[in-house]
Specification:
Elements (H helix, E strand, L loop, with lengths): L1 H15 L2 H11 L4 H27 L13 H24 L21 H13 L5 H13 L4 H15 L1 H13 L4 H39 L1
Helix pairs in contact: 1-6, 1-7, 2-3, 2-8, 2-9, 3-5, 3-6, 3-7, 3-8, 4-6, 4-9, 6-7
Length: 226
């Protein structure tokens, strides 16, 4: 289990510091029903990560994760190689498109509609950002593959996935906690977080994707050539 956790901690950290979901949470907290919407957004995010990671574990099954008791199956190496290449390409693409002036960074247009979303749509948005976002899903899939390839019993696989989900949710839980404790007084603090995250969103994600992608490429090559 220790090896599995070592493989997924970096992936979980990359999910946790992804700026766009953090900005979305802060915008959700600024809505008239900020307390309810914030909790629903956090729950939806946790469920989205859990469902996607759990789906990977369920598809693999206890018998498909490794070719021997100590060596991951070939498909695991191929998957990590593909995901690593995808993340490296994402990183390079984002880096090339980053604004020369960080103060000119623009947020996605859908964020302007957050204050008009119903609680159920806030929940759905969080699930979508966690499980279906093209920038986040590869990290979760890679984490599920790493856990599956460790040859762990089902209980330890679930525990490893739970730790990944918890760490991957810290970025959202931090502003939620600040808001629940500080209430309206926390809006200034959260506004500063939102502005900084918006300015550095592209650069942060570019570096994260490139570094994590290189690690996955190395893992995949190691598995395929061993």
């Amino acid at each position: 289990m220790g090896q599995a956790l070592g493989d997924v901690l970096g992936l979980a950290a990359a999910v946790a510091v992804s700026p766009l979901p953090i900005i979305a949470m802060i915008l959700v907290l600024a809505t008239p029903r900020g307390r309810l919407n914030g909790v629903l957004f956090a729950v939806g995010w946790i469920i989205g990560l859990s469902v996607l990671g759990g789906a990977v574990l369920a598809i693999v099954g206890p018998e498909g994760s490794s070719s021997t008791s100590s060596q991951p199956a070939t498909w695991v190496g191929g998957l990590k190689l593909a995901l690593g290449g995808l993340l490296v390409l994402f990183g390079l693409r984002l880096w090339r498109r980053r604004p020369s002036d960080a103060s000119q960074a623009r947020l996605p247009k859908w964020m302007a509609t957050i204050d008009r979303l119903t609680p159920s749509k806030v929940f759905g948005l969080a699930v979508t950002l966690a499980a279906l976002n093209a920038k986040n899903a590869p990290l979760t899939i890679a984490a599920g593959a790493s856990i599956a390839s460790a040859g762990l019993p089902v209980g330890q696989q679930i525990a490893s996935l739970a730790i990944f989900v918890l760490i991957g949710s810290l970025g959202l839980l931090a502003p939620l906690g600040v808001f629940l404790i500080g209430g309206d007084r926390a809006r200034t603090t959260l506004g500063g977080w939102r502005d900084r995250a918006a300015r550095h969103n592209v650069a942060v994600m570019a570096v994260l994707f490139f570094v994590i992608g290189l690690k996955l490429l190395g893992d995949g090559i190691s598995i395929l050539t061993s």
